[in-house]
Amino acid sequence: MRLLCLWLLAAAPAAPAKADPAPTVQNPSEALRQAKNSFDYGSYEQAAKLAEQLIDTHALERPQDQIEAFRLLGLSRYFEHQPAPARDAFLNLLSLDPDYQLDPFYVPPQAIAFFEGVRTDNQALLQPIRQRRREAQQALQLEEEARKKLLTQARAPPEEAKVKLVNVRVERHSPAIALLPFGAGQFQNGNAKLAWGLLVPEAVLGATSVFGYAWYLLHRLPDGNFDAQDYNTAIAMRAVQISTGAGFLALWGFGAGEALWHFNSTVTVREEDAPTPAAPPAAPAPKLKASIGPIPGGGMGSLAITF
Q: Which of 47, 51, 147, 285 could form a disulfide with 39 if both were Cys (CB 3.0 to 4.6 A apart)?
């Protein structure tokens, strides 16, 4: 019986050994630096092992460091003539940054051509990632601009209060004013330039015509004739009165017709008030304080005003 038990124990299959957990990287930045140094010195196998350890343990948090680890792994496997692992590493790199470019100053053309071939073969799959990255970058840029605007405006000294008032006034015009002389119709229609162009010559012509007519009346004798010495002047003044009067009537008719042609019975006018400065803080109201206290032999009072 004792021998049988020993045989059964010997024949029993050994229990599988418990797998050891993946080792953790104590200093990921230092390990990445060592991988880069190994790669620079041509120790591609050592660089690949260090990069794989960093990738498998997810020790790298920054996307830039992850991209660098995949770059070292992909180039190391390529230089070790292992195209399949190199392709996988480059695919992982491009999944993080579809627009990543290898530096031609440090990487030979054959390796760059291999890397670009991986990108070309997966262009359709990389395009959605590229689009999402651009949208994320634009969102971050807009967020940064909004943050700067907030800080700038919040720290700026308070400006004067800007109150913008808009008054709307409706004017009702009268056609009778358009028939008046001296550019009245043009002033009503808002054509000040033409109104002044009519007012000045009409005033000169009208005044000259009135002066000529007044001289004519003042120098005419009761029988309607003129002295011999005033006869020629009277004829000239009569001509001046008639010609200037005709010119006045012509300008008046032109102005009235032009004003009626452009006449508008209702006009809306918008008036904007200038920004009003903020009112200064009100001065504190003066305070009156009175106090009474006893003193030996009597009392003492005080009156104080603070402002």
A: 47
Across the chain, the runs of DSSP E, i.e. the strands, are 166-172, 266-272, 287-295, 298-306
Q: For 48-67, what is the mean pLDDT?
A: 94
In the chain, count of helices (H) and strands (E)?
11, 4
The residue whose two tokens read 């695919």 is 91
Name the residue among 80, 72, 82, 83 with its Cα closest to residue 39: 72
97-104 contacts, C-beta under 8 A, 24 or more apart: 97/63, 97/67, 97/133, 98/126, 98/127, 98/129, 98/130, 98/133, 99/130, 99/133, 100/67, 102/71
Instruction: For residue 195, give the nearest of 217, 215, 178 by alpha carbon.
Output: 178
pLDDT value, residue 216: 78
Backbone angles phi, psi at 42, to 5 degrees: 85, 5
pLDDT tier at 98 (50, 70, 90 boundaries)?
very high
Single out the residue of 230, 200, 197, 229 nearest to residue 215, CA to CA. Answer: 230
Q: Give the position of tokens 């003539």.
A: 81
pLDDT exceeds 90 at position 97? yes
Q: Provide the token pair at 12.
A: 């029993």
Residues 6+ apart with CB under 8 A from 62: none
Question: What is the arithmetic mean of pLDDT over 90-110?
Answer: 94
Position 1 confidence tier, pLDDT thresholds 50, 70, 90: very low
Largest CA distance in the chain: 181
* Structural tokens at position 292: 């009474």
Whether residue 120 is predicted with pLDDT greater than 50 in this model: the reply is yes
Q: How far is the C-alpha of 120 from the C-alpha of 3, rounded, in Å? A: 70
